[in-house]
Design goal:
Layout: E1 8-11, E2 22-25, E3 76-79, E4 83-90, E5 94-105, E6 112-117, E7 122-123, E8 125-130, E9 133-138, E10 145-149, E11 154-157, E12 161-163, E13 168-170, E14 174-177, H1 185-213, H2 217-228, H3 230-238, H4 244-247, H5 249-267
Antiparallel strand pairs: 1-2, 3-4, 3-14, 4-5, 5-6, 5-7, 5-13, 8-9, 9-10, 10-11, 11-14, 12-13
Helix pairs in contact: 1-2, 1-5, 3-5
């Protein structure tokens, strides 16, 4: 059954913070939280799943397994922990049961708009692993994107979409996780411990990857350059996550993704070619029997 698009658009002009200049809610769309302003539903408490920070940790380069879809099923996520809404549910397969995207008005970029999609669940289709992470494609005609599972969060990959029916330009890409304001002080301590473990994993895997390059100097330089740029890439991805300086949730999940990527590269690197099979000598050609001399029967 073709999904119906039900759009709710709210505009917010500069200087009118907290007051919607105009708001249209079409029947069937799930409502925004008017007290929180456009694109900002209230806190969404979410348990922070992950490894046990008290578990003994090996200093050696052990493989880091990608989080499974069970870590996001039932989760309610916001882009940068602050706006939009993405809710995952698991029936026979993983689905997005609610989705709201926040962007800017296509005619007046200083106005915020919010597109809420309802009328049916959005299926997600398994995709090839992305840097070792479990990945899914969300094939919405108006704004397709991919999600990579990050243990209680997702990384969205895609591009800026123009949803003309709502006159709204949205960018779904980035880290979607729990509301930044919902992460308590105790949870923040747990996140910090987990990040330390992920950092150790990534560092050990990096060293193992360099060792695997052997005398290949070009490969070693490429690995080192990628590692050197990771911190700045993480900073760019996480600098806008709400309350990141207090809880560090985004950095912990991006570091986990880095460890998984290094693990996948180390385990999935080029394998030595199989030795050629020895060739068998060709069978001797049959030799015709000599004819008897004339007169001999």
């Amino acid at each position: 059954m073709r999904m119906r698009w039900l759009l709710a658009v709210a505009a917010l002009g500069i200087g009118l913070a907290g007051e919607a200049a105009a708001q249209i809610q079409l029947p069937g769309a799930f409502g925004a939280n008017p007290a929180a302003g456009p694109g900002a539903p209230g806190p969404l408490p979410l348990p922070l799943p992950g490894a046990d920070p008290n578990k003994p940790h090996s200093p050696e380069a052990a493989p880091v397994h990608a989080p499974g879809e069970e870590t996001i099923s039932g989760g309610q996520f916001q882009r940068n922990g602050a706006n939009g809404l993405m809710v995952f549910d698991k029936g026979k397969s993983l689905e997005i049961s609610r989705l709201a995207l926040v962007g800017e008005n296509m005619d007046r970029s200083y106005e915020v708009c919010r597109v809420e999609i309802s009328g049916g669940k959005i299926p997600v289709k398994p995709a090839p692993p992305a840097e070792g992470l479990v990945s899914f494609n969300v094939d919405m005609e108006a704004c397709p994107f991919s999600v990579d599972v990050l243990d209680g969060a997702v990384r969205v990959r895609g591009k800026v979409c123009e949803i003309k029916a709502a006159n709204c330009r949205v960018d779904p890409t980035g880290i979607w996780g729990p509301s930044g304001s919902s992460i308590s002080g105790e949870e923040a301590k747990n996140v910090e411990r987990l990040r330390a473990l992920y950092e150790t994993d990534a560092r050990n895997l990096y060293r193992a990857l360099v060792a695997s390059a052997g005398n290949d100097k070009a490969k070693t330089r490429q690995i080192a350059a990628d590692q050197a740029g990771f911190s700045s890439r993480r900073e760019v991805m996480c600098r806008d996550y709400a309350g990141e300086d207090r809880h560090g949730f985004c950095a912990s999940r991006v570091t986990l993704a880095r460890a998984v990527a290094l693990s996948a590269e180390l385990l999935g690197g080029p394998k030595p070619a199989a030795p050629p099979k020895p060739r068998k000598p060709p069978p001797p050609k049959p030799v015709a029997a000599p004819l008897p001399p004339p007169g001999i029967q």
